[in-house]
Amino acid sequence: MATRLDQPREIRRTLLPRPHYDPESFGRLSERIARFLGTARFLVYMTVFVAVWIVWNLLAPPALRFDPYPFIFLTLMLSLQASYAAPLILLAQNRQDDRDRVQYEQDRARNERSIADTEYLTREIAGLRVALSEVATRDFVRSELQQIIKELDAKDRPPSFPRSPRL
């Protein structure tokens, strides 16, 4: 059913109000958690936590042990941690994919503009070369002027008469 924009929405009443969260804030939080889960520091913390848990439940007095040998509660805790970590990591990856996609699109647009600019400049240079072949160059004008000067010098000099040999 298509929603009509010219009419207000129907108000849905529920027993419990729906929680409202900012997807951007939640995404940033998930990225921070995923970034932390991928560090050596997290592995060290988790290893120390598990080792302390096991040592405590093996060596502590029987009255203070809260998770006997098969460590079922520890397994439950690690499973719970993994069940939350996986979706958070996936959310962080999706956000990174979105950022990469935008970056690739911007790079592609920038490359297309660069190619268009290069083609334009190539056409302009080709046009200038064609125009210069029809226009007198500096060297051509210089050689023509030198030739005209030589011709004028030759006209201004009195004709040279052949010298008669001295007797």
UniProtKB/TrEMBL annotation:
Alphabetized InterPro entries for the sequence: DUF1003
Residues passing through the membrane, by range: 42-59, 71-91
Domain of life, per lineage: Bacteria
Keyword line: Membrane, Transmembrane, Transmembrane helix
Protein name (Swiss-Prot/TrEMBL): DUF1003 domain-containing protein
Lineage: Bacteria, Bacillati, Actinomycetota, Actinomycetes, Streptosporangiales
